[in-house]
Design goal:
mainly alpha; 4 helices; elongated; 132 residues
């Protein structure tokens, strides 16, 4: 990862930690926004597009951070958020319903997030083997 020049080792660690925190918040925000927007339109196209978006996010974050964790952190944030929001509340209401769009959002998105993290790992591993 390209940290700013002139930082001490402690400063570099802090910069990296803050960057991973931002990636976690990015995954959480995608989970929140998507959980309320997945059912737009007549068919589950929005849910599929949002699942593709989390895949691309995980892939690009892993590539940008040059690490497997860069792709994994937004995936974890998305998965935890989306599945927590899909649980019924004490009143019995749910945010993510058991419709085809809801299933595409949850299961397709979870598969896409895991796939994006795996693709980031493959890019990271391939890049490390080339440097040796």
């Amino acid at each position: 990862m390209g940290t700013p020049q002139g930082l001490s080792r402690r400063g570099q660690r802090a910069f990296t930690a803050v960057t991973y925190l931002v990636l976690l918040v990015l995954g959480i925000m995608q989970g929140i926004i998507g959980s309320f927007q997945y059912s737009r339109g007549p068919v589950p196209l929005v849910a599929i597009a949002l699942a593709v978006a989390i895949f691309v996010t995980c892939l690009l974050c892993g590539w940008g951070m040059r690490s497997f964790a860069g792709g994994l952190v937004p995936a974890v944030g998305w998965i935890v958020t989306a599945f927590v929001l899909s649980m019924p509340s004490s009143h019995g209401s749910v945010i993510v319903t058991a419709t085809s769009a809801g299933e595409w959002w949850l299961y397709g998105g979870a598969f896409a997030a895991a796939g994006g993290a795996a693709a980031a790992f493959i890019l990271w591993a391939r890049g490390r083997s080339r440097r040796r």
